[in-house]
Structures are given as C-alpha cells and as structure tokens.
C-alpha cells in the first residue's frame, strides 16, 4: 500500500490541471494511494510550502514551479537534510488534512 498523499489545492484553480485534478482521486484511491486535502490557507498558517513538490521513496524531492506556464520548471533535490524538512512538512500536512470524500475542490 502506498502512503497517504497530501494535496494543497489552489484557492481559485485557474489551470486545467488544477480544476481536473480532483477527478483523478478515485483512480488513485483504487490504486492504493490515500489522498488527503489540506486547504492552502491552513498550509500557509502551518508553514508548509505551498509550491508543487513531490517526495519519491524519501530519497529524492522534486520541486516544480509553474510560473505563467502549464509546463513546470523542475528541480531534483537529493540532499538528505532538505528531504528531511519536506518529510516533516508532509507529516504535518497529513496530520491536518481531510479525506478526499469530504472535500469539494
């Protein structure tokens, strides 16, 4: 089983990716991923980075910046100290997030 995945949606989704993203949640759930949502305002109050980032096997971190484009600029991070910070933020997000069934994005 995959670990839970926190998602921090935009307040007012503007891109096609953000508005269609929730429709894929049932597929991810059937695949074993447990999606949880945390409102952006709550993430900001908790000090969790709201930029798009992904942890892979707790050994790599992918930072993505969309700017004005639908195609993100990507940066791969393998520094264990940086990864540890993001692991802590992921756990903090999960402890405050709610299940996908209770959210309308």
One letter per element, helices H and strands E, the order comes to: EHHEHEEEHE
* Low-confidence blocks of residues: 13-20
Report the biggest beta sheet as strand number plus sense, adding barrel if it closes.
3 strands, mixed
Beta strand %: 15-25%
Rg value: 14 Å
State the domain count: 1
C-alpha end-to-end distance? 25 Å
User: Percent of residues in helical segments?
Assistant: 25-40%
Class from helix and strand fractions: alpha+beta
Number of helices: 4
Mean pLDDT, to the nearest integer, reads 78
Shape: globular
Sheet with the most strands: spatial strand order: 1-2-6
What is the number of strand segments? Answer: 6
Topology, element by element:
Elements: E1 4-7, H1 16-20, H2 25-30, E2 34-37, H3 40-46, E3 52-56, E4 60-65, E5 73-77, H4 80-96, E6 98-99
Parallel strand pairs: 1-2
Antiparallel strand pairs: 2-6, 3-4, 4-5
Model description:
- By secondary structure, the protein is an alpha+beta fold.
- The protein has one domain (4-102).
- The chain has helices spanning 16-20, 25-30, 40-46, 80-96, and strands spanning 4-7, 34-37, 52-56, 60-65, 73-77, 98-99.
- The strands form two sheets. It has a three-stranded mixed beta sheet. A three-stranded antiparallel beta sheet has the order 3-4-5, covered by helices on one side.
- The radius of gyration is 14 Å and the shape is globular.
- The two termini are 25 Å apart.
- The model is unreliable at 13-20 (pLDDT under 50).
């Amino acid at each position: 089983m995959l670990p839970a995945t926190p998602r921090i949606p935009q307040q007012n989704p503007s891109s096609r990716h953000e508005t269609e993203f929730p429709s894929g949640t049932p597929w991810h759930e059937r695949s074993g991923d447990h999606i949880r949502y945390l409102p952006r305002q709550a993430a900001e109050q908790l000090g969790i980075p709201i930029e798009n980032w992904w942890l892979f096997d707790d050994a790599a971190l992918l930072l993505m910046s969309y700017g004005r484009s639908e195609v993100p600029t990507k940066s791969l991070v393998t520094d264990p100290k940086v990864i540890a910070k993001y692991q802590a933020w992921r756990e903090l997000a999960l402890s405050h997030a709610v299940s996908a069934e209770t959210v309308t994005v």
